[in-house]
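Deviations from the work plan: none for this task. Representative record:
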Amino acid sequence: MVVFNAGRSPFDRFLDLSRLSELQGIEEDATHVSFGALTTFRDMEDCPAVHRHLPNLVKSARATGALAIQNRGTLGGNIANASPAADTPPSLLAYGAELELVSSRGRRRVAYEGFHRGYKQMDLAPDELVARILVPKPQGLGFHFFRKVGTRQAQAISKVCLAAYARIEAGVVAEFRVGLGSVAPVPARARHAEAIIQGAALRALPVEAACTELLKDISPIDDIRSTAQYRARVAQNVLRQMLGELAAV
Amino acid sequence: MAEKILLRLTVNGEPRAVEVFPMARLVDVLREDLKLTGTKEGCGEGECGACTIRMDGRIVNSCLIPAIQAQGSVLLTVEGLATGEEPHALQSAFHHHNGAQCGFCTPGMLIAAEDLLRRCPNPDEAQIREGLSGNLCRCTGYVKIVDAVKAVAEGRPA
Amino acid sequence: MIGNSAIRKEGRAKVLGRSRYTDDKTFRCVLHGATVRSDVPHGILKAIRFGEGIPWKEFTIVTAQDIPGENIVAAIVPDQPFLVPVGGEIHHAEEPVLLLAHPDKYLLEKARRAISLDVEELPATLDVASSDRVFKEINILHGDVDSIWAQAAHVVEADYRTEAQEHLYIEPNGMLAIVAHGDHQDQVTVCGSLQCPYYVHKALVHLFNLPGDKVRIIQMDTGGAFGGKEDYPSLIAGHAALLAWKAGKPVKLIYDREEDMAATTKRHPSRTHVKAAFDANGLLLGLDVDFTLDAGAYATLSSVVLSRGAIHAGGVYRCPNTRIHARAMATNTPPSGAFRGFGAPQSLFALERHMDVCAAKLGLDPAELRRRNFLKLGDTTATGQLLKEDVDLAGLMDRTLADIGYTEKRKLFAAANETDTPIKRGVGFSVFMHGCGFTGSGESYLASVAGVEGLADGRVAVLAASTEIGQGKDTVFSQIAAQALKIPMDMVEVAQPDTKVVPDSGPTVASRSTMVVGHLVEDAAYAFKQALIQQGFLTEPYAPEVFREAVKRSHARLGSMKCYAQYHNPPHIVWDDKTYQGDAYPTFSWACYAAEVAVDTVTYEVKVEDFVANQEVGRVINPVLAAGQIEGGVAQGIGWALWENVEWKHGRMANNQMTNYIIPTSMDLPRIRVGFLENPHPAGPSGAKGLGELPMDGPAPATLNALQNALGPLRLDEVPMTPERLMDRMEVARG
Ligand SMILES: Cc1cc2nc3c(=O)[nH]c(=O)nc-3n(C[C@H](O)[C@H](O)[C@H](O)COP(=O)(O)OP(=O)(O)OC[C@H]3O[C@@H](n4cnc5c(N)ncnc54)[C@H](O)[C@@H]3O)c2cc1C
Ligand code: FES
Ligand code: FES
């Protein structure tokens, strides 16, 4: 929304989606919680089903800007804005979300992982919209973790953001996904680190090995907000912290 | 450029209609077209909160809202807090506790505080600090602002 | 009345949203102004090109050629042009080159972007360490420091640095100019967001080559300043006035946030080398300080900032042999400027950090080392100033340490930090002073004037050019005048600073408004009362209503009666600008601040969890307003210590947005606990001293000293100590 300030926007035309009803509403069925693309951060924070099933998304929403931003900003906008520093994508990745995309040619459903193709590039045609975001409801004994590292406590843009979800079966990590923000050109899964933890016993998590592997999952940069070195080290530290909490479940 | 549209709003309880460009920023509509200069602009990027107003029951940054998205909405600005010459309890409390120094963040801060107290009538200090965290103040260090909000929550504004 | 927390005078308008800041005032025919800047840090301007697709005929365009008077901002050193002419030298990347005005803001922005400059680039000096151009150099010598090193039991030396800090007042800079073309002479009026009406006045008199009465400067309500609206507004006012003069219409020049952050002044970055010698008992024998400021491209106020920084470099300690060598150096970055504390926060950061470093080397508690060396009544400072006040620094320190629970917490935290908790805690403090009013001969050179006027309705008005910038000057002046006249505060009005109405009471800087100007207000009020008595309108004792009637009668009979008071240096104050010896300030405010911090070793984030700010500032005229000043200053100090970092790229600020320049939100700060110890000093009205800048000096060293306590030996030599820098230091320490 910031781009339309005095004369800076290159566009003369805008499509206002804000009153399209099909893009609105949070729905819950047996297997999924689904979000219209126009769901605001505030809507997510206020929805009991999201609190119950997807606590990381509530934390992502509460960590986005401050309240006035949360009242207006939408989940669809947060995805399609395609910022590597956005705070809901790590949670969506950790939960294995899917997207429903629509255009005049019809609808298609894609895994959210892989939607971001490169810096600010998406698997989205120019005439296509993100209609809904579908998140599978975690089943069984779940472990949820979200941590955003900005420079201040509120109104901060992430320098590192890490969300994780693990399903635990008989003391073993049966399912495990980690989503990362601000450490790669796109929101990223930590596939290498995940592979080390997947299937491991809670009592014997190979924590340091996972932290080392994590460096293969990320490609942080120096910019005006932080340094590559800081991002890499803190991503490792937060992963270590998360695994410590997981081990203690 | 696009054609102007007729924008109908309810501002501080009064129906208003103005002709504006659809992408005009709401903060400019308020300040320039409706002459309600109480709402301030400190950054134009949603960061400082000086332009905070209430729109359809929720606080928003008016610098980030294109006029067209405000069509038909109900707005509250700092000018609408007082009843005639009788200040709102939060206004009295900010005045008495020195919650306004230069005063530039104050209009937005008051709207955010009013919203906080409606959502959470008895906030503790941490909740007050969270409720106001979208409003930057460079003068006060926030202590007197927090005190003013606390005083109102406890029913002793002045 | 004095010592009473009277409610802020202009507060009601502020909370009701009725105050009038510059951008709130407008005219139907107003044009909007914009500034085209140079882009490169150093070069020769060859040509200005106007792009296609813009109806240039509709625009008012001003270049250096249009300037009717001198193209130079009149300041301490006149070296900065209002606009760089074609053929002229560009000294930094934000230099104004051309001005535009148009009724349509959007088209104006498009036009600004359509202008391009041909510049022959020259090599730029962007790092102060590689600069060889000195704007100002100061040497303070006391004793013979070189004779001491060999005989000292301990010699400890280290380097410290502080980076630029942005004021980030929430109201960006802005001016509204109106020029009436007269038959003989033009009349230039500028209303704006500013701290020093007479600085702007002087600049415009020279710019337009007009007599003083043809230039009128009016301060609008001002949304924060902190030094940031001290010298730069002269440029903006000049630009707005040039556009209005050429267009024949009012022109509004309001900076947006990005422009304000990129182009206006910042706190001077500093580099300090400190070498200290102690005897076996921990007594300070010698102190050698080398202090360098990055002044940026023009001299502006750097000489005075340097002077204050140099004088404060010795801190609150007795030291028989001191050498302070200070320099302000030129670089090709936008000029540094005044910012709350004026050089003292920089040099005090170095010294107060160094005291903790020395304490560790000497195996003493930081409090003990300081206690052995505090200045006392009868001691002399580095400039040879004899302390005539009974200052009790040890008492101030002890009370602060008790308030924060220093001894218990140091023990408690040391034990807890041994465990594998990721959160490490520490407490630390700083002890410091701040000189009140202008340095040395500054006040006598200014010879400020303030007045009191009787109004037709029987009330009085205070006449002074001192500006209300949120610090509560209107309230405090009313309290002072009311007290002197024995009338209630609501019978005192404070005139809007307007150079046509108020005398030059000097700039609103250096914590001088209450102490120096407040004293003049008090004197003028007494003179006014005396005049009423002498002319037979009033006899003492009297009730307020009797006073009101007396003023009414005098007004009806004689018209408006005004009494003025002018500053004269008290005879006992002696200062030598050449040797930098003598009474640097009429008096000092003293303080001890303590911080408790928690460091998250997962993210290297630091949270200040408790903060105590105790000070001795003479008589406190209005405790609530005074506490507000301290709390706000501490917040800026903590911000500077931990987060507020200016990222430079090719001589420009690259993070010039509020999203990327991090000041604290309400969630980032603790409740700041403020205490005042009163010790009335005769310099100010009823014994008040200055307090506006003091709170900026202490938080950075206190916070980093607390960090040191939390983390152990670590090179904590720089502010802001951002999480990134802290991580680097911790990794280096770990090896
Ligand atoms: C002050 C401030 C602080 C912020 N802080 C954070 C933060 O901490 N964390 C964070 O993650 N984000 C942050 N943001 C970013 C912001 O919250 C997101 O970009 C927001 O979610 C955008 O939502 P919107 O509805 O306003 O989208 P818009 O701004 O309206 O749209 C963003 C982009 O997405 C496109 N788009 C929107 N909806 C769709 C759709 N359904 N299909 C296809 N394309 C679409 C638009 O065309 C546009 O290109 C912040 C923004 C501001 C202004
Ligand atoms: S002006 Fe809207 S948030 Fe700053
Ligand atoms: S009172 Fe000045 S910014 Fe808050």
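The first strand of chain C starts at residue 31 and ends at 37.
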